Amino acid sequence: MSGISKVGVVGSGLMGAGIAEVCLRAGLDVLVSEVNATAAEAGRARITSSIDRAVSKGKMAESEREDVLGRLRLTTDLGEFADRDLVVEAVAEHEQTKVDVFATLDKVVTRPDAIFASNTSSIPIMKLGMATQRPEQVIGIHFFNPVPVLKLVELVTSLLTGEETSRRAEEFAVGVLGKQVVRSQDRAGFIVNALLVPYLLSAIRMLESGFASADDIDNGMVLGCAHPMGPLRLADLIGLDTTKAIAESLYAEFKEALYSPPPLLLRMVDAGLLGKKSGRGFYDYSA
Ligand code: 3HC
């Protein structure tokens, strides 16, 4: 048994909203925190619209919708996380921001056996564990976008993560959420992003050099390798700011050129062209 019924999710962006949704649909009590009321309302809208989509597709009954949304609360005060059994941090991929969140959670969460998880894709779990007095209770639970669709969760234990934390986190991911787990050591990028991000960066370099068009690069991988979407469209889905942040963490850890973000990616992020979430990236989503 995971012993987890009250979950806190820090952040309600693409990933935080998806994590909150799968926890709600698994019958849990979910409290989501955001930096201000506007962001909290946007988070609620994101979660509600995804649940409405499930209802309209006949994947959820109208009565279940009421029950699910009745278990969702949003707050702008992390102090309200005191009674949480598990907190999943899903804020922007920025080390200091995450460190600050973990230091605050350590002060406010009163349950002695609470689990402090991060959805980071690339920042070492050890750095987040050391921001707390309870590094044995800190673990990486890394979800994949779209969270309600993709089965995988990467479980990442640091050198100090306790066995009981690891066992309960796996029971939560598999037994409660119905996900499938792979385990990785605590290295930037873990398994999936260490393989995926160099591939995405190669596609961006290919486009940048004029070697091929965005459509041809993406169609090449969709039609030639049966990928569900091509690398540029996938980078747009992940978010170009997040793709850049993961590349930078990988580069900082390994100092290998294949992880270095290409100038085109940097300029697009400078320009606010962040992909699907901003309406434009390698493709236009404004329509
Ligand atoms: N929320 C809930 N359900 C969604 C969804 C979302 N955001 N997006 C799609 N779906 C569901 C649809 O409802 C549909 O369900 P149905 O078959 O039961 O009707 C199903 O997924 C397929 O969706 P669509 O028909 O609209 O579109 P596609 O068949 O093109 O699938 C996709 C869309 C699921 C996004 C698919 O293209 C895909 O899996 N792409 C690859 C995504 C991927 O690689 N993600 C990993 C990114 S890496 C990451 O997240 C790690 C991080 O650290 C960066």
Automatic annotation (TrEMBL):
It comes from the Bacteria. Pathway: Lipid metabolism; butanoate metabolism. Keywords: Oxidoreductase. Residues 6-186 form the 3-hydroxyacyl-CoA dehydrogenase NAD binding domain. InterPro entries: 3-OHacyl-CoA_DH (IPR022694), 3-OHacyl-CoA_DH_NAD-bd (IPR006176), 3HC_DH_C (IPR006108), 6-PGluconate_DH-like_C_sf (IPR008927), 6PGD_dom2 (IPR013328), NAD(P)-bd_dom_sf (IPR036291). Residues 189-285 form the 3-hydroxyacyl-CoA dehydrogenase C-terminal domain. It holds the Pfam family 3HCDH. Belongs to the 3-hydroxyacyl-CoA dehydrogenase family. This is 3-hydroxybutyryl-CoA dehydrogenase. It comes from Allokutzneria oryzae.
